[in-house]
UniProtKB/TrEMBL annotation:
Pfam families noted in UniProt: adh_short_C2
Keyword Oxidoreductase: yes
Keyword Oxidoreductase: yes
Swiss-Prot/TrEMBL keywords: Oxidoreductase
EC assignment: 1.5.1.33
InterPro entries: NAD(P)-bd_dom_sf (IPR036291), SDR_fam (IPR002347)
Family: Belongs to the short-chain dehydrogenases/reductases (SDR) family.
Name of the featured protein: Pteridine reductase
PANTHER family per record: OXIDOREDUCTASE, SHORT-CHAIN DEHYDROGENASE/REDUCTASE FAMILY (AFU_ORTHOLOGUE AFUA_5G02870), SHORT-CHAIN DEHYDROGENASE_REDUCTASE FAMILY PROTEIN
GO molecular function: pteridine reductase activity
Annotated NCBIfam families: PRK09135.1
């Protein structure tokens, strides 16, 4: 029998959860019954708006925590904030990401540190900080990866490399944290483009077998599936309309 609220009574933390894929995933986790902790750094207006939207649906079910994920020493405080708020942690969605071009001839160490910091370093050390709480509840970690972890994105070598590290993190932590904690990933394809980047969208669509862009809901449904799939770990699901099977 299907449970329409399989996460009832559980707590989910979404990093970068105020906008875009993070916000939609948070909505789906909340609709499945979870209390949600929305982490944000600078998107305060969006974070408050999302929290208020969810609170109108269910009282005392959505909360905000603000901080810089690149401050590694702060990450245990983020986890403790979740525990102080709801008393538990069951789902960690490592969604926060940096994305910008770094052509080889122009790339800087600061860009490297930013892209690897948010896409690889922060989610690893947050997973480490969250592991004791997740272990208590047989919880799970879900990383937002990218199809470009396997197929490098032109002019984005550092981003692609950082996401490749993120993908290996899924597999490595699935072994390290088993059997109590499951670790999986979602690899979005053509879902959301940066504003004004119509050229990238025009170039991408003909290479997608389903011949259309995806929607944030497609990602959020997959996140929810992995949050409730009790016998899946170490897997990365590409949600890309078939793009990753094309040449």
């Amino acid at each position: 029998m299907l449970d329409h609220q399989p996460l009832r009574g559980k707590t989910a933390l979404t990093t970068g959860g105020a906008a875009r894929l993070g916000a939609m995933s948070t909505r789906f986790l909340h609709a499945a019954g979870a209390n949600v902790i929305i982490h944000y750094r600078s998107s305060e207006d969006r974070a408050r708006a999302l929290r208020d939207e969810l609170l109108r649906q269910r009282a005392d079910s959505a909360f905000l925590l603000r901080g810089d994920l690149l401050d590694i020493d702060w990450l245990p405080e983020l986890v403790q904030g979740c525990l102080d708020t709801t008393g538990r942690l069951d789902v960690l969605l490592n969604n926060a990401s940096n994305f910008f071009p770094t052509p080889v001839d122009e790339a800087t160490q600061a860009q490297w540190d930013s892209l690897f910091g948010v896409n690889a370093k922060a989610p690893f050390f947050l997973a480490r900080a969250a592991a004791p709480a997740l272990r208590e509840n047989a919880g799970c970690i879900i990383n937002m990866v990218d199809i470009h972890a396997e197929r490098p994105h032109k002019n984005h070598p550092i981003y692609s490399m950082a996401k490749a590290a993120n993908a290996m993190m899924v597999k490595a932590l699935a072994r390290e944290l088993a059997p109590q904690i499951r670790v999986n990933g979602v690899a979005p394809g053509a879902i959301l483009w940066p504003e004004g980047d119509d050229q990238a969208k025009h170039q991408a669509l003909p290479r997608i077998p389903l011949e259309r862009a995806g929607r944030p809901e497609n990602i959020a449904r997959t996140v929810l599936f992995l949050a409730t799939a009790e016998y899946i770990t170490g897997q990365i699901i590409a949600v890309d309309g078939g793009r990753s099977v094309q040449q």
